[in-house]
From TrEMBL:
This is MOP flippase family protein. The keyword NAD does not apply. Its main location: membrane. It comes from the Bacteria. It comes from Salegentibacter maritimus.
Length: 485
């Protein structure tokens, strides 16, 4: 048990290094590209990725999760997943290559034909290293995972910036997407080689398919509940509107990608190893969600108040229509940062069918809401309805996940209450201070720095003075790390 706990702690640490480094780089790259590439060009690529992002889920079809969750993996399991991934990846590459005119016709954008054909090769590239990625996760070797991920990001981003500077516009974004997968796969083959052959074994396939299909089903439904908005915006509005929304959405996803998914990525293999110890899973889950809320609630609450300064100083005046979108979606981002850990409970306890059913219901509600929202008030209508459904839907989601580890909804909400009320106070103080700051007519970047510094000091100060549990927990973790060093 101590060895398992140690590996889990190191996994969380290296996942934060990976995700933190990736997000800092991605934000810098986004800010640079936003000055070189127009919202229309960002939106054009987003039109394609709506479909490729959906199809890529069929490359793996949940078999990687099955490999991670399975207590003992043999050679037949590895070979079968490798065979399935290569077969599905090759099929999707051919499919998208020849059906690219249909995507162009759907959006009525002729340039999508060539762009889609080139991007179609991402499927076979991703499929080739699927087993490597799953086994490195199962081994909780997130140090090597961080190195591979960050190295691929740096190389692909460098190519994108050079191309954007040279005036290649939309192609610079496409090259970043495709080259990042190519570099990632090459590095996995070099630093984490796996003895795998494309051999199919029916018994291994059947044993993993039961779980894999539920994971894939939940992933597919969840994908469309999150991306039907992009499809409808691209079809019903303009590529420029989609470019604005896609970037606002990416900002909303920051707490999920920086904290929640980092922890979830490590908790899944960790929970899978102790899936029979419900009290321990409950304890870890409550502590994890408490820490996530302590970090993400003030981040997103503060962003909602300083969205104007943030957008103008990072993206530039051409993106000013994104300001109200960021403000509203920040509220949804805070809620989603906690919900993402529920999927870990379902998958690690082999209850992925429950997650699939929940995702199906709320996926349908989201799609209907997206359509109604656009009809009522364009982008703003969609964002308001999306946020409303997301917040209201959190309660039943907490209920069903909590039941599996003996936690009530009241207990979960109480666990988050300190961070919620501290954030409310912080947001109010930032808003008042912002009104005072207006008279000095500072530049957006200077105003942003002042407001963020004020908000961070205010929030941390309240946490220290009140000695909230989340702050004390963070101090204990920090002391343990120093003691080990």
């Amino acid at each position: 048990m101590p060895s398992h706990l140690e590996k889990t702690k190191l996994g969380v640490l290296w996942s934060f290094v990976n995700q933190g480094g990736a997000q800092v780089l991605n934000l810098l790259i986004t800010f640079i590209l936003a000055r070189l590439v127009t919202p229309d060009e960002f939106g054009t690529i987003a039109m394609i990725t709506v479909f490729t992002g959906f199809a890529i889920r069929f490359v793996d079809f949940g078999f990687s999760a099955a490999l991670i969750q399975k207590k003992e993996v043999n050679e037949q399991d590895v070979n079968t997943v490798f065979f399935f991934n290569l077969a599905s990846g090759s099929f999707l590459t051919v499919l998208f290559f020849f059906l690219s005119p249909l995507i162009a016709d759907f959006y009525k954008v002729d340039s999508l034909k060539t762009l889609t054909k080139v991007l179609s090769f991402i499927f076979i590239v991703t499929a080739s290293s699927g087993v490597n990625k799953a086994l490195i996760t199962k081994a909780i070797n997130f140090k090597l995972n961080a190195f591979i991920s960050l190295a691929a990001l740096v190389l692909s981003s460098g190519l994108a910036i050079i191309l954007a500077y040279k005036g290649f516009g939309v192609w610079s974004i496409l090259v970043k997407l495709l080259s990042q997968e190519i570099f990632t796969s090459l590095l996995y083959f070099i630093f984490y080689p796996v003895n795998q052959k494309p051999k199919f074994n029916r018994k291994s396939f059947d044993s993993m398919f039961k779980m894999g299909r539920n994971v894939a089903g939940e992933s597919i439904v969840n994908y469309w509940s999150r991306n039907a908005d992009n499809l409808l915006i691209g079809k019903m509005l303009t590529s420029g509107a989609l470019g604005l929304y896609s970037k606002a959405y990416a900002i909303m996803m920051l707490p999920l990608t920086n904290f929640s998914r980092v922890i979830a990525r490590v908790m899944f293999p960790s929970f899978s190893l102790i899936q029979d110890d419900i009290p321990e899973i409950k304890r870890i889950y409550l502590n994890a969600t408490k820490v996530i809320a302590f970090l993400t609630f003030p981040m997103m609450g503060g962003l909602a108040v300083v969205s104007k300064e943030f957008v103008l100083s990072t993206f530039g005046p051409d993106w000013k229509e994104m300001i109200p979108l960021v403000s509203i979606l920040s509220i949804l981002g805070a809620s989603q940062s906690i919900l993402s850990l529920n999927g870990v409970i379902y998958n690690s306890l082999n209850k992925s069918h429950i997650a699939f059913r929940i995702s199906l219901i709320f996926g349908l509600l989201n799609v209907i809401g997206f359509y109604v929202g656009i009809k009522l008030d364009g982008l703003m209508g969609l964002v308001i309805i999306y946020t409303t459904i997301g917040i209201v839907g959190a309660i039943p989601n907490f209920y069903y996940a909590g039941r599996l580890i003996n936690i009530s909804v009241i207990e979960i909400l109480k666990n988050l209450s300190h961070s919620f009320f501290l954030t409310l106070v912080m947001v109010g103080l930032i808003y008042v201070f912002k009104l005072f700051l207006v008279r000095f007519e500072f530049t957006p970047i200077l105003s942003l720095i002042i407001l963020v510094t004020f908000g961070a000091l205010t929030y941390l100060g309240m946490a220290v003075v009140l000695k909230v549990e989340e702050y004390e927990l963070a101090k204990k973790l920090l002391k343990k790390n120093k003691a080990k060093k």
